[in-house]
Specification:
Elements lengths: L11 E5 L6 E2 L8 E12 L7 E17 L4 H5 L5 E4 L2 E4 L12 E9 L2 E2 L7 E10 L13 E8 L11 E3 L4
Antiparallel strand pairs: 1-2, 1-7, 3-4, 4-10, 5-6, 7-8, 7-9, 9-10, 9-11
Length: 173
Amino acid sequence: MPKWPFGDIGPCIVIWDFGGTPIELDPYLGTVTLRIADSVENVEEERWGSTAVDAVFSGTECQLDVPLTRQDFDDLANWVPGLSKSGSDYIFAPKAGCAMYENAKEIVIKPLCDNQPDTDDSHWIHIFKAYPWRDVELGFDRSGQRTFLVHFKLFPDQTSGAGGRVFSVGLVT
């Protein structure tokens, strides 16, 4: 019996803009990773030097990484910031000064079994607010398959009844 509601091993399907016009982020190659990292600041006293006498949580960073592969660039340009197409040219534009939260969307991660999404929404991971950003390294060699890594910055939901939560296991409606 699995220890996690979404199973111990296996692929998933990632759905961006779940509450709006859903886009399945597929196919991907490699590990879809949900990362949660607490920030901690040390409390120090001069008599102990740089040894912490206490510590205080100062925030939590959450991120989702999806290594997309074999993507249609036109599809990516519809939702990944800084990508566009002009005629037959593909444009990678720099991004600066643009807020993310106002355009953040819901994401749902559903485990797959026999290539079918789990229908039990208590097994899904529900991310309340997330926005994509690029981190692309296009490798060219004789054996590596290229991936287009998209990161999603996760934010506490400030607009709904989610009470500032970032994500849940199980669909919150």
